[in-house]
Structures are given as C-alpha cells and as structure tokens.
Write the structure tokens for this entry.
Amino acid sequence: MKKQTLFIAAAMGFLMIGSVAQAADVKGFRSARFGASEKAVIDAAVTDLGVKSADIQRAKDSVTKVTTLTTKLKSFAPLNLPALVTYVLGYKCNCLTQVGILWDFTGATEEQRKTAIVGVTALVNRFAGEEWGKDETVMNRVTGDVKEGSTNVVVFFRGQNKDGGAITMAGAPVKMMKASKDSKKDDPLSANIDDLKTVSVSYEKDAANPDIFRVDVTGF
C-alpha cells in the first residue's frame, strides 16, 4: 500500500485559510442545536442517526458534572467506518453545548481506509468552505513534541469564530518522517497517516468558556 502522508513544515506553524468577511456560525450538529434540552437532543439523535432512544447511553461525569448522551453506529458517512457519537449537556444550562463524533479505524480493510481518507478530505473542504474570519482557522497542524520518528496527533482542521463556536477535526496517531526528495517545501517533515486509529470531529458552542464545573478560587 502506498504511504499516505501530509507534508508539514518543520517549524510546525499554522497554515491559514484565506479569510472572508464573516465568521462561520456553529449552531450544533444536524438537527441537534446548541441550547437544546436533553429530550430535544435525544429526539434529534433518533432522527439524524437512525437509532432508537434505547440505544442512547446517558452518563454524568463526576469531575466536570456534564451529562453525556452516547450512541454507537456500525457505519457512519462520510468515513463509512464504525463511529461513536456523543452529545454533551452543560453543567449549568443542562443543555447541548458540544457534539463529538469518533470514527474507529480498527479492523478496517485497505479499501475502507482509502474511502475513509477521502471522507476526511471532503469534510476538511466542507469546513474550510464556511465563512470564517481572519486568522480563525488552522489546517494540518501536528501537536506535541514534533521530530522525526515521533508519534503525534494531527489537527486536519480547526476553526473558531469570534463568539467561541468551534469545529475541530483531528486524527491519531501519525508518525513523523522526512519528506521525499521531490517535495517542494524547505526541509519538511511528513506525517504518515497510514496507521490512523481514530479520526474525530467536534462541534463546540463556546470553546473558550465550556459549561463545566469549576472550583471557585476567587479571593485567593
């Protein structure tokens, strides 16, 4: 199988997308809108994902005190791989504040992986085509300690508008390697994505101020 790679400058800086006048409006995922009640979120999941309400697992995090509604899908487009979809209800508002989708590459065939990568590209193009403002987006950034041979997480796309609404698409793991000699970049590294195990997409109502429990340390 031919290696699939992303070419990333050795400095690992941000790659900006051309900006336009208005920021993208991040309202939620499909018919599950930010601010919706738990019942409305469950109804949206049943409609949007084709699941039964009994297939949705409810849990409350003991630390952040948010409520999560989670369901598993055997295959979910556009990656067409098994996926876990999670809806997060905020601590104070008890309403939808975040949605996450996690695709699992475990056991995927070579053809399924190729299809999934086509889906990744399509989603990045879809997100990048939204009306983001200046300096509100990044693409193909590898996080962590980046060096030849290191294993990292790649952020395929992240956009955050002036109101804090954000969309993030990431994959892991990727292995950093020297780029081929025919690369036109100066001293680049490449991120080998052949061994991706997961790809995720998250939608956040307010990435800068998530509605989670925090200990009040005012006055100290």
In short: The chain has a mean pLDDT of 88. The chain is about 15% helix and 35% strand.
